[in-house]
């Protein structure tokens, strides 16, 4: 059985559907009901006593459940700690007690020091700039020290149908004719990864790899250029507007070489293709 915490969410719902199509036995644990026909338990991960009845010996657990709004996290630290840290602690505890087969943990490049430059890999310095990143660092350590075989997957900026990241926001605003807002001067660059490729990495990690992996497209894109391209593709009359920000602009490129080698995974969906898929 493959147990997916947060299996009703953005990434989890795509993963659950794909696994079911592959003939796998899947159970979703979430506070929200899934939109597909799958075994489901409505549980808050903070509720250890309920959680311990859902994970059994030999299960592989994909732990996706988390709060992910980096901006919100600094103002809602207690809420983020309870969900992301206590929730992960309970998942790891139950996995140890039940002798689960493997944990695949969804982490983030938010664990890295934003001041890093050049190409970074899995061993680059961890120094998050927001509390969300802090919770992911703690979560990684809980998983890493569990004594259970694991794959810690650090996703870059995930987008796609149902997503809430900057690509999805840009497309939504452009299609409705609203201003496309950029925080900063637009020169900052980010690595964007389609949810289909993220799910592909998770599926590879179910059977392969043991350790931490950067799950990235492997190429950076200029935010201003992405916004303008989305406006072109949607044939929108939106204009780009810039907002002041105190965030440190990321200058590093995330290497995905380890994931390519050990997980035998390669991203397949180009940013252009992914954006076109969002335009209706």
Tags for this entry?
280 residues; alpha/beta; two-stranded parallel sheet; 10 helices
Q: Give the assembly state of these chains.
A: single chain
Name of the CATH architecture: 3-Layer(aba) Sandwich
Query: Strand sequence of the main sheet, in spatial order?
Result: 3-2-1-4-5-7-12
Q: What does the main sheet amount to?
A: 7 strands, parallel
Order of helices and strands: EHEEHEHHEEHEEHEEEHEEHEEHH
Roughly how many Å is the radius of gyration? 19 Å
Number of DSSP strands? 15
Number of domains: 1
Enumerate how many helices there are, as a single number. Answer: 10
Overall pLDDT: 95
Low-confidence spans: none
Per CATH, the class reads Alpha Beta
What general form does the structure show?
globular
Range of helix content: 25-40%
For this structure, what is the CATH homologous superfamily? Answer: NAD(P)-binding Rossmann-like Domain
Category by helix and strand content: alpha/beta
What does it look like?
This protein is α/β, with parallel strands linked by helices. Helices cover 37% and strands 22% of the residues. The protein has ten helices and 15 strands. The strands form five sheets. A seven-stranded parallel β-sheet has the order 3-2-1-4-5-7-12, sandwiched between helices. The protein is globular.
């Amino acid at each position: 059985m493959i147990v997916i915490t947060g299996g009703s969410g953005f990434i989890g719902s795509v993963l659950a559907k794909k696994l079911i199509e592959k003939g796998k036995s899947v159970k979703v644990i979430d506070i929200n009901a899934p939109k597909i026909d799958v075994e489901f338990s409505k549980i808050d991960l903070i509720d250890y006593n309920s959680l311990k009845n859902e994970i059994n010996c030999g299960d592989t657990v994909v732990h996706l459940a988390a709060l992910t709004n980096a901006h919100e996290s600094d103002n809602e630290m207690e809420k983020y700690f309870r969900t992301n840290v206590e929730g992960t602690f309970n998942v790891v505890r139950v996995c140890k007690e039940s002798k689960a087969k493997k944990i695949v943990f969804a982490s983030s490049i938010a664990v890295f020091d934003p001041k890093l430059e050049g190409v970074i890999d899995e061993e680059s310095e961890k120094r998050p700039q927001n509390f969300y990143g802090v919770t992911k660092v703690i979560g990684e350590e809980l998983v890493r020290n569990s004594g259970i075989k694991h794959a810690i997957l650090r996703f870059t900026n995930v987008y796609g149908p149902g997503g809430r990241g900057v690509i999805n926001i840009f497309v939504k605003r452009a299609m409705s004719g609203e201003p496309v807002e950029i925080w900063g001067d637009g020169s900052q660059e980010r690595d964007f990864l389609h949810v289909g490729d993220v799910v592909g990495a998770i599926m590879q990690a179910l059977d392969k790899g043991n350790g931490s992996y950067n799950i990235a497209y492997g190429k950076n894109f200029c935010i201003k250029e992405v916004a303008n391209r989305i406006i072109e593709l949607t044939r929108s009359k939106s204009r780009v507007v810039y907002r002041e920000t105190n965030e440190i602009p990321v200058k590093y490129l995330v290497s995905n070489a380890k994931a390519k080698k050990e997980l035998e995974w390669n991203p397949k969906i180009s940013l252009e293709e992914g954006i076109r898929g969002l335009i209706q």
